[in-house]
Amino acid sequence: MPMKTEKETKEPEVIRKVVSKQKVSLRDTLNETFDLVLFSNYEECKGAPLVIGFGDIGITPIITSNSIIEQLELSYIGVLINKQAAPASVITGGQAMHPIRIFGNKEVMVIVADSKMDAKVSVDLVDSLVKLLPYLESKKVFCCEGAPTETTEKMERKELQFVTTSEETADFLIGLNHKALQEAVIAGISGGVLAECTAIHANYDFDTCIFLAPTCSFYPDIWASVLIIQTLSEMLQFKTDTSTLEKNAKKLEDKANELMGLHKGSAAMNSS
After folding, report:
1. Which of 43, 139, 142, 201 lies at a C-alpha separation of 20 to 30 Å from 251?
2. What is the pLDDT of residue 202?
3. Contact status, residue 42 vs residue 76, Cβ threshold 8 Å
4. DSSP code for 177
């Protein structure tokens, strides 16, 4: 009897015909720009650390946060509604979602957005991120950023830099041979959250940690996200498989090096 091929035995992909709905458990106004909406399943995630992934400066936060959501199959638990932005919906896997989305499970929560925001909205967003923490009962916040490096040479991807308000987190990261950042200006949402964290609020105190992973400034670099996810996995003790992300990073890096090699060769011929 002939054996069935992998293609023949693979389960057919289920295509959703309608978008799914979420039951709202809580809705509150955080400031003049943002409302918080949490769905009925958010209660299961209360107390988990929160990873922030907003692409206001580079792509590292977006790639990192979306990869964690996909790898851990995190549930869609809430949204931040930007009342100043044009209405829009992001549809993924047959699910309609707001542009600023919150996902989570008992181990970790992730808030992510794919588009940049202007300065005024960014200020209100930082304020909203701090104000939503008591609702989620989250005491630890992680921000993911790339540290651009202008080099075409192969970079070491074993060490990242960090800034944290938690001595326990600092000791853990130093034990993994990562380096505490001493002098820097951190712009954008991550910098704003760090600044807010350093002022202890009377009604809610939390710790934050910003990861800065080396990334090439000449092409979209996925390796920074690989390093951050692996570090978070060790710290928060959740299981992830970054092999697919690593393969994509290698392909992108090889292609970029090939194109830069062609450019260098062309430049050398023109100068001779």
Report:
1. 142
2. 57
3. no
4. T
3-state secondary structure of 127: helix
β-bridge pairing 90-92 and 207-216: unpaired
Q: Cβ contacts of residue 180 below 8 Å, gap of 6+?
A: 161, 162, 163, 164, 170, 173, 174
Exposed, middle or buried by CB within 10 Å (0-12, 13-18, 19+), for 230? middle
Q: Are 128 and 30 in contact (CB under 8 A)?
A: yes
Dump pLDDT digits (tens) for 31-42.
Answer: 999 999 999 999
Q: Answer for the pair 141, 65: CB distance below 8 angstroms, yes or no.
A: no
Predicted confidence band of residue 246 (pLDDT cuts 50, 70, 90): low
Give yes or no for a contact between 164 and 210, defined as CB atoms under 8 angstroms apart: yes
DSSP 154: P
- Cβ contacts of 22 within 8 Å, gap of 6 or more: 39, 40, 76
The tens digit of pLDDT for each residue in 150-188 reads 555 555 667 889 999 999 999 999 999 999 988 888 888
What is the model's pLDDT at position 264?
41
Kindly report the CA angle at 73 between 70 and 79, in degrees rounded to 5?
Answer: 85
CA distance linking residue 55 with residue 97, whole number of Å? 18
- Rounded to whole angstroms, the Cα distance separating 17 from 155 reads 45
> Which pTM value belongs to this model?
0.81
Distance CA 69, CA 75 (A): 8
Here the tokens at position 221 are 């670099």
